[in-house]
Amino acid sequence: MASTKNLRSAVVAILAPLPSILFYISFLRCHSAADDSLSPLWAWCHHHPLLLANTLFFLNVDLLFWFIGLLQSSHWMIDLYWMVIPVLLLHFFATHPLAEFNALRSRLVIFLTSIWSLRLSHCYFRREKWQLGAREDWRFNDMRRRHGQNWWWISLFAVYISQQGFLMVICMPFYVIHANKKQLNIYDAVAAVVCLNGLTIAYFADTQIYNFVSRNERLKKEGQPVVPVLDEGLWRYSRHPNYFGEQLWWSGMAIFAWNLDYSWWFVGPLANSVCLGIVTVLVEERMLKEEYRAQAYNKYQQITTSFWIPWFRKQKET
Questions:
Q1: Which of 24, 111, 134, 312 is deepest in the core (most CB within 10 A)?
Q2: 173 and 255 in contact (C-beta within 8 Å)?
Q3: Residue 53's closest CA among 219, 174, 209?
Q4: Cα 97 vs. chain centroid, distance in angstroms?
Q5: Which residues pair with 179 in a beta bridge?
Q6: Main-chain phi, psi angles of 234, to 5 degrees
Q7: Taken in order 253, 244, 57, 110, is the CA torsion positive or negative?
Q8: What share of the chain is helix, strand, coil (3-state, %, to 5)?
Q9: Average model confidence (pLDDT) for the chain?
């Protein structure tokens, strides 16, 4: 039964983004085959790449994914596509007919983003025990209970439209990179190093928390006391090193955009900081509500000087 559900969820996940992908492929084929002029639809797609990307996002992800979530009574799929949508947007901007870019920079960013997506995908599937659609994000569950009968329409805005705005903003460097032919320079190397450091920190932080959760699951099955708080490895120096690594990654992408004279380069990291800040507060509130770890986690907060950035521990004065 579990394998059948997993297969069904995989089929749904594969088919769900096809409408926008097939539409865009049709646009590229008609565009390349056009002799004198394009039809009004294809001409609009040609002249408005950002609007086209947002329109496809709204129709295919916001509306279609939302409808599928209502049918399944679970909005699990948006979590899966969080690590796929940036890759799709990157290739969209790289292949659009108006794209103008330095080929080496484009390949570098595609390579880095592919590693980012693979890391996040591995983390997701490992955490979900290699199952699809088995559970919904706990934050969506909390909102579902809070909003009750109104959740069916509130979820469109809380889960999907809000994430469209967030994802489109933090992915703006992908657009900027493919709208500027500036030659590679030292700042591209700096941006790549920042991205790689973010990926490395996030990978080790995710692996350490995964091992911690797995160990507690084993201890619980054996009837032994579980460890309430992870305060080893990177988690000894930061309460959320995985979020710090993720922020570092997107900051590296912002450096690429800054190097290309994009004046609003800071908006992406700022939006990501706000989002991660909200998520961090929710996570810590959840930790403090669990009786078996509340006291230990409160102590952990008091002796950790850093909220995100890994740093040395120091007991706070009381």
A1: 24
A2: no
A3: 174
A4: 27
A5: 100
A6: -65, -25
A7: positive
A8: 75, 0, 25
A9: 91
Q: At what angle do helices 85-95 and 162-170 cross, to 10 degrees?
A: 50
279 contacts 213 by C-beta, under 8 angstroms = no
| C-alpha to C-alpha distance for 161 and 261, rounded to whole angstroms | 29
- Tens of pLDDT, residues 151-175: 999 999 999 999 999 999 999 999 9
Cα angle 193-196-198, degrees, rounded to a multiple of 5 = 110
- The span from the CA of 9 to the CA of 145, in Å, is 24
Output DSSP code: residue 307: S
Closest CA to 95 of 170, 32, 33, 189: 32
Please report the pLDDT score of residue 36 as a whole number: 56
Cα separation, 140 vs 157, in Å, equals 12
Residue of 52, 45, 16, 8 whose CA lies nearest to 28: 45
State the amino acid at position 160 in one-letter form.
Answer: Y
The pair phi, psi for residue 33, each rounded to 5°, is -90, -10
Which pTM was predicted? 0.92
Q: 165 and 172 in contact (C-beta within 8 Å)?
A: no
Query: What is the per-residue pLDDT across 59-114, written as a single tens digit (0 to 9) for each?
Result: 999 999 999 999 999 999 999 999 999 999 999 999 999 999 999 999 999 999 99
Neighbours of 247 (CB within 10 A): 22
Q: What distance in Å separates the CA atoms of residue 30 and residue 198, rounded to the nearest whole number?
A: 40
* Burial classification of residue 29, based on how many CB atoms lie within 10 Å of its CB (0-12 exposed, 13-18 middle, 19 or more buried): exposed
